[in-house]
Amino acid sequence: MDHFCSYRLSEIIPNLDANALYEFTIMLTESQGRGITATMDTATVAVSAPGAASNAAILASGTKYITYYYKGSHLTTLAGSGNSVNLTIKVDALQGFGANGVIVSDISVNAVSFGVNTPIALRNGAAYRYGFNGMERDDEIKGSGNSYDFGARMYDSRLGRWMSVDPLASLQRGWSPYKFALDNPIIFIDPEGETEFYFRGKHIGSDGRKDNMIGLVSDRKVKRSIENAAKEGLNTDLGSFGNGDRRGGVYAIDATVLQTADAVLDKARTSGQEREYGVSLSKDSEGSFQMNGEIQEGPVRPLEGSQSGEVNYSPGEVSIHSHRTGVGEEGTHANADEPSLTDKSSMKKEDMSIIVGKKGEVTKVDGVVSDNRSDDGTIEIFKNGKRNQSISGTRTKEILKDYKTRKQ
Q1: Number of C-alpha atoms within 13 angstroms, CB side, residue 340?
Q2: How many angstroms from the chain centroid is the CA of residue 257?
Q3: Which of 17, 95, 156, 316 would be a feasible disulfide site paired with 282, CB 3.0-4.6 Å?
Q4: pTM score, two decimals?
Q5: Looking at the domain assignment, is residue 156 inside a domain?
Q6: How many domains in the chain?
Q7: Which domain holds residue 114?
């Protein structure tokens, strides 16, 4: 098995100095039990391994390094008109250590001057450019993982400091304008994010993750922590949430899912007394939820003797449908927090099921039916057949109005 690596010289070393000496280091992983032979130009390149003092130890190591040196003038000659340098890595047959393949991971370039290596560039073979706090690495100048692009400012992970003044420094008197995350990056992060936290419908802060999620906070201690961070101009990192996840006093729901549920609830409140409405959502290739068609309208069916409005819509990862909001002559009604047998069967096939409509008591005294349910409506969210969140119609409107304003 041979790996043939070709790199454009102008991309690896943007400002090549003909008189400078350059060190190239290539890291190979998952290479246990494989002998490695590397050839650059016509010369055989040395292979080493961390802490390995013998050929047997190098062979056994799962991580190996190929290191070679060239002057800038020689690299220019090698690159020629194609402006590329080529390296052939020959991988021997497996020798009993159980590895299945070899991965060419990082390629780093250093300029060597008076015995000191100055990082020039790094390329990652897996094309994964992100690291600390989920930010993109900027490895061109300072080497691998030493600088991160947070958008407005660059962060130096070796110093634990920004390389420019914090634009919100006036809100954080007593702190250095170059500090990062109040010197506590385990709890706080500081990018511009899109995940917003709400407590009883009121916005209290963000976690800075660009995932289109809305976090509904129920724990007062978590609420205070998020509010304190927001006052300092910081976001609060509570970990990555998926749609419908509940953790640490926070329930997370995708903003598009909640907006769609609100739209179905609007239809149920205005014209859903004797019919259901429904739609489903699925994730697209970029991981964003999209509606599978328009919101569908079911047939008119009086509530007496029928527990289902029978609305048909395309299946998806998330289903949303309404229960009829009217009341029959005998007090028959369909609350949103009471799934029908058909609903329970469908929930087994879906990642999330949402029922919207009304909930509460309907009474009949002396032949008089009284609907004591609020016209506000409710959004009832089910996962794995069990209800795991309830949001009132009014609170949903407040959250979505604020969320939309913040994203404009």
Answers
A1: 17
A2: 16
A3: 316
A4: 0.52
A5: no
A6: 2
A7: 2-128
